[in-house]
Design goal:
binds alpha-D-galactopyranose, 23% helix, Immunoglobulin-like, TIM Barrel, alpha/beta
Length: 434
């Protein structure tokens, strides 16, 4: 019998969340031992938000564009689904003045970078800014932080940034681990809690050391050139990123780059598949499309709370490819907080594919009688023992949650730190955090 997702109880979420994180087992045994210095309580689930680069590049990034995106984030329902961090990427927003300090480029940002931050905060969102660890940013249009780390991080704190992405252009002769550690020290000295996004495109293998420094780190090169969604490149980024699954966890995430879902050039199947893969990898969900004119199907995909619930699961486990069968990738390894398992069957071929999965394939007992929740059709089947057979449409996915019960306990999902979401038979329930 199929039943909708049901909330079992209404609770004060704060206590279970804290208890859950304290109870987490140590992970990532196969990567270098790390001191989790970045255990700062930030980004306990993968950051969600919007950044301009994939769609717009440097032009026409300005205050008007960012404010329009902020408004669209709200009116489209994306804010309610958890997309929080928003702000300019490399978009000539500041320069270095004669005193060596950063000053807003007032031609582009007439309210000042502090004013833009105020606009974003007034709408219950969080403010993201961009800079570079070298002498200049990639296009050389903006100053980098080299030799100005402490002053610049103080400026970001004064502008009330909540998230800073630090790029790796023009860093000849610099060591990534040392440079990013110095910037971490500078951020801490500035005294404002800021989600720290390292962007060395995998240079220096940050998955081996960056958990002690920041909250997320790029594992790959850029996913596309501005306004040119590139499916093959996205799949290459996913293939490189999934192998690094042991390095990810609450507060420290592998980042295969901002999303291309919703950009021109992708089919609905591709958008759905892309989003499922990013959710399964516990990747940061930073949208990169134009939010102002979204097709309804794009909104539906980007705000699918059942898929987002997998991405934002508080155990923070990154799923990975368990095996391939012909053109089908079988993704698992993502245990969820309630003992369910996420399972993604991704058919990369041009014809329908039948896939058999046994419960033991995904770490559950064959004798278990389990329910299968389809996260895109929102239907539940089962219970059934042993396993299942699924036919996956060409170039599409089956994204499933395999559960011991036909109703979820209330997932303690913090989709934003201002909202909590639970699922009920009648649909999602929104509650402002206390
Ligand atoms: C690098 C980053 C991109 C973007 C651009 C800006 O390429 O990887 O995400 O920030 O710089 O120039």
């Amino acid at each position: 019998m199929e039943r909708a997702v049901r909330s079992k109880r209404r609770v004060n979420f704060a206590v279970p969340i804290v208890a859950l994180f304290l109870a987490l087992p140590p992970r990532a045994q196969n990567v270098s031992p790390r001191i989790r210095a970045a255990d700062d309580g930030l980004a306990l689930t993968p950051p969600m938000g919007w950044y301009p680069w994939n769609q717009f590049g440097q032009e026409p990034q300005n205050e008007k564009l960012i404010k329009e995106m902020v408004d669209a984030l709200i009116s489209s329902g994306m804010k309610k689904a958890g997309y929080l961090y928003v702000g300019p990427d490399e978009g000539i927003c500041f320069y270095r003045n004669a005193n060596g300090e950063l000053s807003t480029n007032l031609d582009r940002y007439p309210s000042g970078l502090r004013g833009l931050g105020d606009y974003i905060h007034a709408r219950g969102l969080k403010y993201a800014l961009y800079t570079d660890a070298g002498t200049r940013t990639c296009s050389k249009a903006m100053p980098g932080t080299k030799d100005h780390e402490f002053e610049d991080m103080a400026s970001f704190a004064e502008w009330r940034a909540d998230y800073v992405k630090i790029d790796w252009s023009n860093t000849e002769g610099q060591d990534p681990a040392k440079t990013y550690a110095k910037l971490r020290d500078a951020q801490q000295a500035a005294g404002r809690p800021i989600v720290y996004s390292l962007c060395s495109w995998g240079v220096g293998e940050p998955w081996k050391w960056a958990a002690a420094v920041g909250n997320l780190w790029r594992t790959t090169g850029d996913i596309c050139a501005p306004a040119k969604a590139d499916w093959d490149m996205a799949m290459k980024n996913a293939a490189a990123n999934e192998k690094l699954y042991e390095a990810a966890g609450p507060g420290h995430w592998n980042d295969p780059d901002m999303m291309i879902a919703g950009m021109d050039g992708l089919s609905e199947n591709q958008n759905r598949s892309f989003f499922s893969v990013w959710c399964m990898m516990a990747a940061p969900l930073i949208a990169g499309n134009d939010l102002r004119n979204m097709a309804p199907s794009n909104i539906q995909i980007l705000t699918n709370l059942e898929a987002i619930g997998i991405n934002q699961d508080p155990l923070g486990i990154q799923g990975h490819i368990l095996r391939r069968e012909g053109k089908v990738e079988i993704w698992g390894g993502k245990r969820l907080f309630d003992g369910s398992e996420a399972l993604l069957l991704f058919n990369r071929g041009a014809t329908p594919a039948a896939v058999q999965v046994t419960w033991s394939d995904i770490g559950l007992a064959e004798s278990d009688r389990l329910y299968v929740r389809n996260l895109w059709t929102h239907q539940t089947s089962g219970p059934q023992g042993g396993g299942m057979s699924v036919t996956v449409a060409p170039n599409d996915v089956s994204f499933l949650r395999i559960c011991k019960t036909n109703s979820y306990p209330v997932p303690p999902i913090i989709v934003a730190d201002s909202y909590l979401v639970s699922f009920r038979a009648s649909g999602p329930v929104w509650r402002e955090a206390q």
